[in-house]
């Protein structure tokens, strides 16, 4: 399937103009930054372990409340205005549309997370691994937001559709603590948000290659699966229309 960067850029610019007029969604851009400022403002001398744990929590919240939410709203807004069908009928391919509509959210989320990381002053044990897992997570949550948006008819529906995502993905790292009493919760350790916590919690010394590869591989698998699901659902929507 071929992709036209000219069409991708046109969709990117179109979404940027619409996003800048949607203040309810745009305000989500500052949420991670505000959280970082509030948490670091409590005590700037937090120990490394506390900083890592809190930073992972803020990242997981940001992925849901910013990346997933913004993508779901962009898709749902197209459906609410009945413009998604028109977009599907243009010469733009599935990749053109999905990449174009995902690029804006990816860029915005990446910039906000860089600022958030700087505010926290967090220094990862392996910068390359962190960058890769965050990039994969952004694609993963964009795909999840696309799925939520395709199942939503309005912006309100999109806002509600991400609640299960927030519950499962954000709550997974905390649910792991119940694994000793309820073994079924051990499955939550394989959720990407839990793996992100493991990766961020690594110290500069005392970690192995396996400690780095496990979060990357698990997150990559989730990303590939959810991306494929989002593409299939979009194409099915095209046929339904």
| Assembly state (oligomeric) | single chain
How many structural domains can be distinguished in the coordinates? 1
C-alpha Rg, in Å? 18 Å
SSE order = HHHHHHHHHHH
The structural class is mainly alpha
Helical proportion, percent range = over 70%
Shape: globular
Show unreliable segments.
none
Structure notes:
α4 runs antiparallel to α6, α4 packs antiparallel against α8 (155-161) and α6 crosses α7 (127-150). It is globular, with a radius of gyration of 18 Å. It has one domain (5-237). The two termini are 21 Å apart. It is 76% helix and 0% strand. The protein is mainly alpha-helical and 241 residues long. The model has no long low-confidence stretch (mean pLDDT 83). The protein has eleven helices and no strands.
Question: Notable features of this structure?
Answer:
single chain; 241 residues; mainly alpha; globular
Summarize the structure.
The chain has helices spanning 5-21, 23-26, 31-42, 48-80, 84-89, 94-120, 127-150, 155-161, 163-175, 192-200, 209-240. The protein is mainly α. It starts with a helix and ends with a helix.
What's the helix and strand layout?
Layout: H1 5-21, H2 23-26, H3 31-42, H4 48-80, H5 84-89, H6 94-120, H7 127-150, H8 155-161, H9 163-175, H10 192-200, H11 209-240
Helix pairs in contact: 1-6, 3-4, 3-6, 4-6, 4-7, 4-8, 4-9, 4-10, 6-7, 7-10, 7-11, 9-10, 10-11
């Amino acid at each position: 399937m071929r992709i036209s960067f000219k069409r991708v850029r046109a969709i990117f610019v179109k979404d940027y103009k619409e996003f800048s007029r949607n203040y309810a969604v745009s305000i989500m851009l500052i949420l991670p930054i505000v959280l970082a400022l509030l948490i670091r403002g409590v005590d700037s001398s937090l120990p490394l372990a506390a900083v890592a744990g809190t930073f992972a929590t803020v990242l997981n919240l940001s992925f849901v409340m910013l990346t997933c939410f913004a993508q779901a709203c962009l898709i749902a807004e197209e459906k609410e205005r009945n413009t998604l069908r028109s977009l599907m009928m243009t010469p733009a391919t599935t990749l053109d549309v999905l990449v174009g509509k995902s690029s804006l959210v990816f860029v915005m989320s990446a910039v906000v997370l860089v600022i958030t990381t700087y505010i926290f002053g967090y220094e990862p044990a392996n910068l390359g691994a962190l960058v890769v897992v965050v990039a994969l997570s952004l694609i993963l949550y964009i795909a999840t937001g696309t799925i939520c948006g395709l199942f939503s008819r309005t912006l309100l529906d999109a806002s509600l559709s991400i609640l299960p995502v927030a519950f499962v993905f954000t709550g997974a790292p905390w649910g792991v603590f119940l694994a000793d009493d309820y073994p079924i919760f051990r499955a939550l350790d394989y959720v990407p948000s839990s793996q992100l916590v493991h990766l961020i919690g690594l110290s500069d010394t005392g970690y192995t290659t396996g400690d780095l590869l496990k979060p990357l591989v698990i997150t990559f698998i989730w990303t590939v699966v959810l991306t494929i699901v989002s593409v299939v659902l979009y194409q099915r929507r095209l046929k339904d229309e």
